[in-house]
Write a structure and sequence with these properties.
It is a single chain. The protein is mainly α and about 475 residues long. Among the domains are: about 70 residues; about 50 residues, no CATH class. It contains 25 helices and 4 strands. A 4-stranded antiparallel beta sheet has the order 1-4-3-2, covered by helices on one side. Strand 3 and strand 4 form a beta hairpin. It is elongated, with a radius of gyration of 46 Å. About 30% of the residues are buried.
């Protein structure tokens, strides 16, 4: 269009010049005369014609240019209209032209980004949102849109970078929610807790926010706060197995294993089931429909609820075993541990064997207790090997209480093997051997005791018995 307008202007200018030349040339003169006369005569008329023609040409060209090149604002309005009627491709083309004419107008660029989103071109939209944020970091709409995309890709560090400038805004629920969740995944728990606390202050109706606050509190070992947050999530409708597992863990760490057990009358009740008002532990043998019930605010209730909802993980079964163990229900603990043994993760085998040992000891199986504890020491020496010496001594004392002197001496010997520099163990072993009639060996142990501790409180008695026995020198 501009080319056609220019051509028309040039033709008009040429037309005016030719007419001026005809009027200024005499009709009867030679070629030379006409040339001279025209040279003089045209100086003034042609100059005046050009002065008239050139402004006319410029006006025509500018008018044509105005018609051919709409302004950025006009292109924006056309693009907006195309977007509203669903013609996303045309909207993109028009808005791209608008942005090209006015790159600093962020409103035009924002609508272009939205058009790219609606057209299914997220990469284009993200590029435009990124350009807006680069020019104005606190542009809320662009930063949020960009953060949503990064959040879906789990680019949490970028989410934090984008939303930090917006966190001072009042009632900015989505900002605090996305920022708090991203900080949690980045491992910045204190900052995440601060943002999520602000999130629920803006709108406390999202159960996921309370759940995440519970996860943070549990990780920070703030177990009462974790229980409070998880219970809020549960009241808001969140009722999955994983939530009940987390609640069971928090109650367990608060040592609330079985809760406030009450005797209740439950028609057709059955032990080991969840019935209103809680988890049925066991029946009262002296009353037909009476049962002992753990309330919902207990570790066992939530662990069993998670199991009822379909969770069958090693973590849950290990927790159930631990709950029964700490509640001194050793047989139930052993049943859980035996069922889960093939599925215990290798990293937890040491702790598993140690807890099995404790359950076996509680159930009266001293040999099994020591066998499991030795397995735990083999799996994790630094954690459990130091426990062997007191374990042998503990079993020895149980045997002594039962009057089994031979077993008592056997286990004290094992304790001495694990702690050969213990004067107390040597002294105990010497006394046991003396009482069993092994006097020479008893003297040998007492001599070692006195070498290890010269100021032993029973030194005089040991020396008297050593001299009376007349044992040759040497250990």
């Amino acid at each position: 269009m501009p080319t056609v307008t220019l051509f028309i202007g040039m033709v008009m200018a040429r037309y005016f010049c030719r007419n001026a030349m005809r009027r200024a040339t005499p009709p009867r003169s030679s070629a030379a005369t006409r040339s001279v006369v025209c040279g003089r005569a045209l100086a003034r008329p042609c100059g005046r014609v050009y002065l008239v023609a050139l402004p006319l040409l410029a006006a025509v060209c500018s008018a044509g240019s105005a018609v051919a090149s709409p302004s950025a604002a006009e292109l924006y309005e056309r693009g907006r209209a195309a977007l509203l009627r669903g013609d996303y491709q045309q909207a993109i083309e028009l808005l791209e032209d608008a942005v090209a004419r006015d790159p600093d107008h962020l409103g035009h660029r924002l609508l272009l980004a939205r058009a790219c989103e609606y057209a299914g071109r997220p990469a284009w939209a993200e590029a435009e949102f990124g350009e807006i944020v680069k020019r104005q970091p606190q542009h809320r709409e662009a930063a949020l849109a960009l953060a949503r995309g990064c959040f879906e890709r789990q680019a949490y560090a970028r989410v934090v970078e984008l939303l930090q400038p917006l966190r001072a805004e009042a009632d900015a629920y989505e900002v605090h929610h996305l920022l708090g969740t991203a900080l949690y995944h980045e491992g910045k728990l204190a900052e995440a807790r601060r943002e999520l606390t602000q999130t629920v202050a803006c709108d406390g109706s999202n159960a996921a926010d309370h759940r995440l606050l519970g996860d943070i509190a549990l990780t920070q070992e703030k177990f009462a706060l974790a229980v409070e947050a998880y219970e809020k999530a549960n009241r808001l409708g969140l009722d999955d197995a994983q939530l009940h597992l987390m609640l069971a863990t928090a109650h367990f760490r608060l040592r609330n294993y079985l809760g406030d057990v009450q005797r209740r009358t439950i028609e057709h009740g059955r032990s080991g089931t969840i019935r209103e008002p809680g988890y049925v532990l066991e029946s009262d043998p002296f009353a037909g429909d009476s049962f002992y019930v753990s309330p919902p605010r207990s570790a066992i209730f939530h662990a069993k609820k998670a199991l009822e909802l379909g969770l069958d993980s090693p973590e849950l079964h290990l927790l159930l075993g631990d709950i029964w163990l700490e509640a001194r229900r050793h047989e139930r603990a052993l049943a859980e541990y035996r069922d889960i043994e093939p599925r215990v993760p290798r990293a937890r085998l040491g702790a598993y064997c140690y807890n099995c040992a404790r359950a076996l000891l509680g159930a009266g199986d001293s040999e099994g207790y020591l066998a499991r504890l030795r397995m735990a020491a083999e799996l994790d020496g630094p954690a459990y090997a130091p426990l062997l010496e007191p374990a042998y001594l503990r079993v020895a004392e149980l045997c002594n209480q039962d009057g089994d002197v031979r077993k008592y001496i056997e286990y004290v010997r094992l304790a001495v093997k694990h702690a050969p520099d213990s004067s107390d163990l040597r002294y105990r072993l010497g006394n046991a051997l003396w009482e069993s009639g092994s006097q020479q060996e008893a003297v040998r142990q007492w001599r070692i005791t006195l070498e290890l501790r010269r100021d032993h409180p029973d030194r005089a008695r040991m020396l008297e018995l050593i001299q009376a026995t007349r044992l040759p020198n040497g250990n």
